[in-house]
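> example.struct
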């Protein structure tokens, strides 16, 4: 993960009345990324990295910190989910949801899906998406 990945969550959760340059957002993202890697409190790092004329409430700092933490978790964590069901021809639980499993790597998710299908279940791989394209 790099600082550029954190600029969008910071920009999108920054209050509308705050106007910062791209360079200021990048600087904030670099500081936040360093603190994420070290496991430090994000609210303080965001507050200290803001320009001197910008003051945010604790709630606003919390929203930005949560967005940054979520981005960090997604980039360093689980990216795929395999959900599986009992097939329609199964006697007692036909079509019922049987369970799910999460994976970091697509190849592992596909292997798990194949194992579920070999156990007479219907399985599907889903990708966890952080951002959707906007026009």
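> example.seq
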């Amino acid at each position: 993960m790099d600082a550029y990945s954190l600029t969008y969550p910071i920009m999108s959760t920054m209050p509308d009345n705050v106007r910062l340059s791209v360079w200021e957002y990048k600087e904030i993202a670099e500081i936040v990324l360093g603190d994420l890697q070290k496991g430090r409190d994000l609210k303080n790092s965001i507050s200290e990295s803001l320009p001197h004329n910008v003051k945010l409430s604790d709630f606003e700092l919390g929203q930005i910190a949560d967005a940054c933490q979520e981005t960090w978790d997604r980039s360093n964590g689980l990216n795929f989910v395999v959900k599986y069901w009992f097939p329609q021809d199964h006697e007692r639980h036909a079509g019922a949801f049987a369970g799910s499993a999460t994976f970091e790597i697509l190849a592992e998710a596909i292997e798990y899906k194949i194992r579920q299908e070999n156990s007479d279940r219907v399985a599907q791989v889903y990708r966890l998406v952080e951002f959707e394209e906007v026009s």
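> remarks
Residues 58-75 form the longest helix (18 residues).
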